[in-house]
């Protein structure tokens, strides 16, 4: 019998920081908990530490959805899998969903940090599925759909929309502003939107000026900012007058 949600849905911010831990925040990692099923959205390099600090057991995860293949968004998979195969006897199946090429990049990362680590026998079933633009991928109660993001990562980068029953959670990933971002957030119950810099574009990220000028285009019911860089954190008091800002450990009932 397929497991399904058995209690109220909650999103927990395990990590909301940038690649460099600005403000002492962990790399991006969001936990969706609907009772019998748990999913991570992104799993940055520090995520195993952050999960344990939050009192969450990585062995309870069913799904990990990855927006793009930068270390601060998928690098934690190396440590999560290494622990599960080498030091634990995990039995719960795990499905990883991510951009085209995720399995090869994950193997390369594992080999770089733990040579021959990918060959260690496991006690659980591991499935790795690839995302494609506007194509739904179903795992248990979760429906994941990817929208093109403008952010170079050596592979397709995506904004993600995850639907559980009648609830939709959208996440920008890392990206410049685009119509695809608006589509991903359309009528979502929660939209997690990156906003790395305050006043000037830095790389392929959203800055606060662009976000404010486009905020009226967002039809999501709730917007929470994440992935803040140093200059955004310096302006946090001002930003919080207009937007909710994520913090590590924040729980958001849905």
Task: Please specify the SSE layout and strand pairing.
Blueprint: E1 5-15, E2 29-35, E3 38-41, H1 47-53, E4 63-65, H2 71-74, H3 76-86, E5 94-98, H4 102-113, E6 126-130, E7 137-139, E8 142-148, E9 158-164, E10 167-171, H5 179-185, E11 190-194, H6 208-214, E12 223-226, H7 230-234, H8 236-239, E13 244-245, E14 251-253
Parallel strand pairs: 3-4, 4-5, 5-6, 10-11, 11-12, 12-13
Antiparallel strand pairs: 1-2, 1-14, 2-3, 7-8, 8-9, 9-10
Helix pairs in contact: 3-4
Written description of the protein model:
It is a single chain. This protein has 254 residues and is of the alpha/beta class. The protein has a domain of 171 residues: Ribonuclease Z/Hydroxyacylglutathione hydrolase-like (Metallo-beta-lactamase, Chain A, 4-Layer Sandwich), CATH 3.60.15. It has eight helices and 14 strands. Helix 3 packs across helix 4.
Key traits:
alpha/beta; globular; seven-stranded mixed sheet; disordered N terminus; 28% strand; 14 strands; Metallo-beta-lactamase, Chain A
Short description:
The chain is of the alpha/beta class and 254 residues long. Helix content is 22%, strand content 28%.
Within the CATH hierarchy, at the fold level, what is the topology of the domain at 7-177?
Answer: Metallo-beta-lactamase, Chain A
- Enumerate the strands of the largest sheet in spatial order, edge to edge or round the barrel: 6-5-4-3-2-1-14
Output the number of helix runs. 8
H/E series: EEEHEHHEHEEEEEHEHEHHEE
Helix content: 10-25%
Main sheet? 7 strands, mixed
- Uncertain segments are 1-6
The shape, in one word, is globular
- Distance from N terminus to C terminus (CA atoms, Å) equals 25 Å
CATH homologous superfamily of the domain at 7-177? Ribonuclease Z/Hydroxyacylglutathione hydrolase-like
Proper CATH architecture of the domain at 7-177: 4-Layer Sandwich
Total strands? 14
Strand content is: 25-35%
């Amino acid at each position: 019998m397929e497991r399904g949600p058995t209690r109220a849905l909650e999103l927990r911010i395990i990590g909301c920081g940038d690649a460099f831990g600005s403000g002492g925040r962990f790399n991006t990692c969001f936990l969706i908990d609907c009772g019998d099923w748990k999913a991570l959205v992104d799993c940055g390099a520090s995520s195993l530490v952050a999960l344990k600090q939050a009192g969450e057991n990585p062995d309870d995860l069913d799904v990990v959805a990855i927006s793009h293949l930068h270390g601060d968004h998928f690098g934690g998979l190396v440590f999560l899998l290494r622990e599960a195969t080498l030091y634990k006897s995990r039995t719960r199946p795990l499905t990883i969903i991510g951009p085209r090429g995720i399995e090869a990049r994950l193997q390369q990362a594992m080999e770089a940090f733990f040579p021959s680590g990918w060959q260690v026998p496991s006690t659980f079933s591991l499935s790795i599925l690839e995302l494609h633009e506007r194509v739904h991928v179903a795992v248990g109660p979760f429906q994941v759909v990817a929208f093109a993001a403008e952010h170079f990562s050596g592979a397709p980068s995506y904004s993600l929309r995850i639907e559980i029953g009648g609830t939709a959670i959208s996440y920008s990933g890392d990206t410049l502003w685009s119509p695809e971002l608006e589509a991903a957030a359309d009528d979502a119950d929660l939209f997690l939107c990156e906003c790395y810099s305050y006043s000037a574009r830095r790389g392929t990220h959203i800055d606060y000026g662009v976000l404010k000028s486009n905020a009226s285009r967002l039809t999501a019911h709730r917007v929470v900012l994440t992935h803040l860089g140093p200059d955004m954190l310096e302006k946090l008091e001002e930003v919080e007058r207009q937007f909710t800002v994520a913090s590590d450990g924040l729980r958001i009932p849905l």
